[in-house]
Write a structure and sequence with these properties.
- This protein has two domains: 38 residues; 147 residues, Rieske [2Fe-2S] iron-sulphur domain (Rieske Iron-sulfur Protein), CATH 2.102.10.
- Strand 6 and strand 7 form a beta hairpin.
- It contains three helices and nine strands.
- By secondary structure, the protein is of the alpha+beta class.
């Protein structure tokens, strides 16, 4: 094939220009596509740490918040509740020393908390994920004389004490999970960030 009369410089320029314009078009089309795969602002916020004003929780009371789509219970334990939890017969519990690895290191003490007054726990039964009911009363007729307060799962009857430790002979295999948390100050709890006590 003869190239007589063909301007090779012009042909080269047109080839390069067309390739550049095509490349810019591909990038322009890819940017929105890649951006659409990023999580939305709402999704990012759903995983963000949650602040809880613990000064508003009455002694013996509970506050429920949501973090990462999970219900989180924050219980303000009275000194009497703390004593009942510490005095519970460990032989009644499946994992009294919280040796299972589903909680932060600072939740392996007898009250499974940084601050003994406040207990922070994921409110999902470790059996099938139902929401246990907070039952702080002592020895109610439906839970028996050994009940010293805690969480009762109405779905299949699992029982947990006021530190979320699971009783023996119930369907739940593990203690309730303690989420990462820390205290920003004396009145503010942050759920979703580790950092120990403030």
């Amino acid at each position: 094939m003869s190239t007589d009369g063909v301007d090779l410089t012009r042909r080269h320029f047109l080839t390069v220009a067309t390739s550049v314009v095509g490349g810019v078009g591909v990038v322009a089309a890819a940017v929105p596509f890649v951006a659409s795969m990023q999580p939305s602002a709402r999704a990012r916020a759903a995983g963000a740490p949650v602040e809880v004003d613990i000064s508003k929780i009455e002694p013996g009371g509970i506050a429920m918040v949501e973090w990462r789509g999970k219900a989180i219970a924050v219980v303000r334990r009275t000194p009497e509740m703390q004593a009942r939890t510490r005095d519970l017969d460990p032989n009644m519990l499946r994992d009294p020393e919280s040796r299972e690895a589903q909680q932060p290191e600072y939740a392996t003490n007898d009250l499974r908390s940084i601050n003994p007054e406040f207990f922070v726990v994921v409110s999902n039964c470790t059996h099938l994920g139902c929401s246990p009911t907070y039952r702080p009363e002592v020895a109610p007729a439906d839970l028996g004389q050994d009940w010293r307060g805690g969480f009762f799962c109405p779905c299949h009857g699992s029982k947990f004490d006021l530190a979320g430790r699971v009783y023996k002979s119930v369907p739940a295999p593990l203690n309730l999970q303690v989420p990462p948390h820390r205290y920003l100050n004396d009145t503010t709890l942050i759920i979703g960030e580790d950092g120990g006590a403030a």
